[in-house]
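can u do me a favor
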């Protein structure tokens, strides 16, 4: 398996992964134009983040996105892992572990990155166990959000 920073040629796979994940986890169908523009925007503006993909036998079998949060308390960045997806036939084969270790190694090489964060659905116990095995810990924080009319 090869893990690497995603390239523009990976955009169709990343769009498909996001659509599949939204349907699987939340029963949501994403608007094609919106998700396509959203994924492409990350490649146009690296300040938004970057994608990482895992390839196995020439095909992309998983991916995730990193976005940034500035911590004034630490004078450094947290990298947020988002949009994690592994194709069903590759699950349980260590794809996420490889993606996570790649991101962790990149972050450790940067003195301006303090840590890695992610959020997970409260009922997604399988994913929670995976994240714990990777050395992540549940925090004391709850997440709140307000979606604005667009």
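np, heres the sequence
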């Amino acid at each position: 398996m090869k893990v690497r920073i995603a390239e523009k040629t990976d955009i169709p796979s990343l769009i498909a992964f996001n659509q599949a994940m939204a349907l699987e986890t939340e029963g949501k169908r994403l608007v094609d134009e919106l998700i396509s523009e959203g994924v492409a925007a990350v490649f146009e503006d690296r300040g938004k983040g970057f994608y990482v993909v895992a390839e196995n036998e020439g095909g992309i079998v998983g991916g995730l996105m990193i976005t940034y949060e500035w911590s004034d308390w630490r004078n450094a960045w947290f990298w947020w892992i988002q949009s994690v997806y592994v194709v069903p036939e590759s699950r349980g084969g260590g794809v996420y572990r490889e993606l996570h270790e790649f991101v962790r190694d990149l972050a450790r090489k940067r003195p301006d990155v303090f840590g890695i964060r992610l959020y997970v659905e409260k009922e997604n116990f399988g994913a929670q166990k995976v994240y714990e095995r990777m050395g992540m810990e549940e925090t004391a924080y709850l997440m709140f959000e307000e979606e604005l009319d667009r």
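The helical segments are 11-26, 32-44, 95-108, 125-133. hope that helps!!
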